[in-house]
Amino acid sequence: MIKVQKPNVNKLKKVLGVAFGISIVVGGTIGAGILRTPASIAALLPNKTLILFCWLLTGLYILLSASSYAELTTMLPKAGGAFNYIKRAFGAYAGFVSGWFDYILNIIAPAFFCVILGEYSALLFPHFKDYSTIIALFFLTLFTLLHLPGVKIGSITQQVTSALKIILLFTLIIGCFFAQPVKSETLAAVESHMTGGGLLIAFFKAMQLILSTYDGWTSVSFFAEEDNNPGKNIPKSYFIGALTITVLYVLINAAILYVLPINTIAQSPLAASAAAAVAFGSWGFTFINIAAVFIVLSILNAYMMIPSRILFGLSREGFFVPQGMNVNKGGTPYFALLICYGLSFFLIVTNSYEQLFALGAVMLTVVTAFSFASLLQLRKKEPNLYRPFKVWGYPYMTILALVITIVLFIGFAISDYRSLIIVSVIFVSTYPFYKLVTKAYKVKIEDQETLE
Fold this sequence. Notes:
Elements: H1 18-27, H2 33-44, H3 48-75, H4 82-90, H5 92-124, H6 132-147, H7 151-177, H8 187-192, H9 199-214, H10 230-259, H11 262-266, H12 271-280, H13 284-316, H14 334-350, H15 353-357, H16 360-381, H17 396-415, H18 417-440
Helix pairs in contact: 1-7, 1-10, 2-9, 3-9, 3-10, 3-17, 4-5, 4-16, 5-6, 5-13, 5-14, 5-16, 6-13, 6-14, 7-10, 7-12, 7-13, 9-16, 9-17, 12-13, 13-14, 16-17, 17-18
């Protein structure tokens, strides 16, 4: 047996509370997608009622799912999120695959958001147009340096930027509802296009985009080990955060649909910008770009923290090199953070994140479905396990959430079979990697206390 190198035994610090939990759910979910996706949704589903229904339906699904996740997270408050529950319920390989799926999902985000910041910087300051990649790398480096000293700085930054994000979005919403709507002469013609068939495929494509925009609502699960009272704080974080996101998303779409006709929205790459132009006149362009910068700064801050926690958790289970458990005195898993920095740097320089981003919704439904299934399995397998929070209406609510997730997965597979094939290839290729890693690191470390 090969011995596992004893890592730095400084623990993750229990310094986070409910304010951080809510801010990481909101800040880790609401990103530039909400400013961009309304155009794509309007092109797919040119009907106001149906569009709002899809956003509300996804929000209700997230709220339903939050109850099951609250039980799982408080039951096993460990760094890294869903793979901990899946591993406990279905064994090492299932945990390995779900953990690395989750990591791939989350490591794409920092690169994507840094590139967006580069683009918006160029819009605000046109003379930076030729330096967008350098600006993206600057933001990546800046936020890595921000998080290296310790978790408290990141926590404060998350709370401040999330609050500013909410204020700016409500300003946009109020501005739109007080503005004079733009009239459309072609609305009836656009809506009649719905009868042409393919509505079911269009619906699932729209839901795939919307679910990607909601992605991030489980963010608090990655930091459960750092919460000072997970049994009380985590359920509050899930429900308040998910409700806030749902209300904001529905109101933003309602505001854009109120002020602009659907045909205009469908033809606007950044529909929120067009709505802001109507609401605030000549200041609209500047306002929406400043709002977008703060929105992206908040979600970037969240996703600079999340992947390193997943990698920390994977390392502790023997699914990555032991050095991934190294934690500095400030509570930052610094080795994992630097690995994430290197990968994000590569994705930005090569633009590889675009190829991976489309896979997000498919991978997300796989991990989410296994999470719900793990709750059902652990209720049978370990009925006496301490559960500070229990899902409402068990088992019916969890089964319902699982069924909806499976239906979404099937719908995404039909509407985006290319992503399904790629995800399937990734899944198959994980087994040799799993055997290689587990052979190299046979000693499994249950938790950091055993190392002291």
